[in-house]
C-alpha cells in the first residue's frame, strides 16, 4: 500500500487528486496509470483492475492511496467540526458509547466520520444506509499535515 499527500491551491481538489494518483502510479509501476472508469455503484476503478485506489481532498490537501486490495481513504482537516447532532444518526451503539466517553468528543466524532467515509469508499456502497452498520474503534486514524486520515483496506472481497 502506498500513501501520498500533496498541498494544492485553488478550487479543484479533484484535479489535484488525479495528478497525485498519476504520480504515485508512475513512481510505483514505472508507467503511466491506465484509464479510469466509474463502476456501477460510482466507485472509480482502473481499467484492467489489479490495483485499487482511493482519493480524498480537504481544503488545500489531497491524499491518495494505492493498494492491491479494495481500499477507501478519507481525510478531514483536524480543525473541522462535525456537528454533534450527527452522532446519533451515524454512530452504531458501540461507537456512540466510545464517543460519549471520549476525553475529546469533538475529535472522536471526527475520527468516526473519516473512518465511516473511508469504509464506505472501500466497499463502494456509499454512505446510504451504511453509517450505523459499522463498529469502528477510536485510535485507528493517523494525523498527517494537519488532517485526520483514515484508510480502510479489504482483503477478502467479492467482485
UniProtKB/TrEMBL annotation:
Keyword Transferase tagged: yes
Ranges of residues in domain 4'-phosphopantetheinyl transferase: 70-135
Keywords: Transferase
One GO cellular component term noted in the UniProt record for this chain: cytosol
The keyword Ligase belongs to this UniProt entry's keyword annotation: no
GO term, biological process aspect, one: lysine biosynthetic process via aminoadipic acid
Superkingdom per UniProt: Bacteria
GO molecular function: holo-[acyl-carrier-protein] synthase activity; magnesium ion binding
Entry's family note: Belongs to the P-Pant transferase superfamily. Gsp/Sfp/HetI/AcpT family.
Protein name, per record: 4'-phosphopantetheinyl transferase superfamily protein
Organism the protein comes from: Candidatus Faecousia excrementigallinarum
Taxon lineage: Bacteria, Bacillati, Bacillota, Clostridia, Eubacteriales
